[in-house]
């Protein structure tokens, strides 16, 4: 176990540092170094040569205390003009941008690192421009600091998480001609997010405060924040390292993204085949959407590679995901070519619905004007079909969810018992031995009753907003039922995300469950997403931001305010931008293909699921029907963790059997078996190589470098690639309204996919 002194020092340094906190203590005679109330150990905050070692990080969660400093300056201003101005401005900007991306053919999003970099540039610029003397010192109270920066990032990233409610409201408008009152729609969006926020607050003692809840993907974010704002020789080197890597990937990434897309998916087998054989395309293709599953395909585009988090996910998470993919190569190929689910005569990969002839399914023909199932029309039109790979994928996602619930109960029962025993989770003040949490105890905590009250109010608003023009879009009892189910699942999702960085998918299970609860009601099934799906994911997003606040020592009540403000701003701009886009592009968004500029593929996905699961749940997913195994997979998945847990319990403590049984994470393996039949897959073998180089070789053979630079490298690569992707999206990819195609050549073929593995004509 690490000592508090080791945990409090900044990440490994070759020389003593002069950081903002230690220097302020030395210079300010008013600071009483013996004040027991503040409990400041100055020596613990200054790095010395003795603190530097080559200790290998063995436990995954130790990166939270070895890589991230627990230092804190309680005198740093947080609520400043810069915080308010940039927080509101960037929240509005990112929410509008994220909404635009929702209706684009490109699969893009607004990342937290993008928000972080933009906030840093603007914040430091405001410090340089604004006057800072006399009365103006309140407008510009010193250099742009880490706490202002973090609050702005939390606000902007919260606003940029496009609410599922907005997407469902768009689907109602586009496909069912149900137009909600603007005020009702905005309150619905906000309430669906705040339900998750309320649950997140109640889970803090379990999934925020302890060291084991370290959220791997956030380590690089915090590492970058501390490198940008803390002083000292080491952080000067880190800042220089960051900007060099940032510039390098910025100038490189546009090449595979625009003029030379072959570099996004390099496959020797595909180059040799040149699109002649479908089997080669299906198994080895990976360059274009829904082309193939990418066996032995490598990418040089960090925009794609970072989807596997190779520099930040722990080795255990990555190995389990790669093992799942290996099984996926076998299972998906074998099932397709043996005609499982009767899908051999339709496409290899697609999430759409198909008719008996393999064409697009006419879903409007089987619905009545009241959006319920027309049984007589169904007899004529027939049942829809899934591609084999998509059906298998849905099964694997449900396997994973069932396995996750049992995995958490078996392997984390002691933590659950400590957190929930004797209603301990209702107390804000906890006795937890984590250096970051201990450093936060000087600030006023948010009482648990705040979160409980927020949850109840949001739930009441959500129920009220589900009643529209005399009809229930979703009955009140169903809102409560699926909120309860999603809240329970959020504990499992949060545990796995906090300890592995991995995020489970529950939407398929919620769709099937809602189909049995609301048979023949596609609108109700779609609306269940707001409470059965969104609640769990909003809980997870809010937990991550609460942990970010703990890592950077933001007073908890300001973190609470930042998340609330970001959600309010995001709700307003999500809705207003969505209405503007729909009103101007309705015909294009309803079209299954769309254009290079606008596409409704995200919204169409909700609509297709609501029809298949809602209108036809009984005909497709009950026992003996074509896809009953998709729903039953959840119950099969419940058994997955037991063999490994039993082996661990029966084996000797230090035996190889016990070590490997503990290493296996069946929820991750199960999900990644079905993770491949979507979008492009050219990056996964590059992820494997980079992941092994980082989390195995560098972590064990170069631990000093790993602690100093590994997570900063990830942040620099992510930041640079995301900034250039943002520029390209508006300059040439059509986000501004006009796409500009690069001229065709060998590396950008006209009649072949970008990896030259499939004919496009």
From TrEMBL:
Transmembrane spans: 84-103, 110-130, 150-176, 183-203, 215-234, 241-258, 319-339, 395-413, 449-467, 474-496, 627-648, 710-735
Record localization: Membrane
Residues spanning the signal sequence: none
Keyword Membrane part of the UniProt annotation: yes
GO terms, molecular function: oligopeptide transmembrane transporter activity
Claim: Protein transport is one of the keywords in the record: yes
Alphabetical list of Pfam families matching this protein: OPT
GO biological process, one term: protein transport
Region (Disordered): 1-29
GO cellular component labels: membrane
Bilayer topology: Multi-pass membrane protein
Keywords: Membrane, Peptide transport, Protein transport, Transmembrane, Transmembrane helix, Transport
Top-level lineage group: Eukaryota
PANTHER family: ISP4 LIKE PROTEIN
NCBIfam families for the chain: OPT_sfam
Similarity-based family: Belongs to the oligopeptide OPT transporter family.
Protein's name in the database: OPT oligopeptide transporter
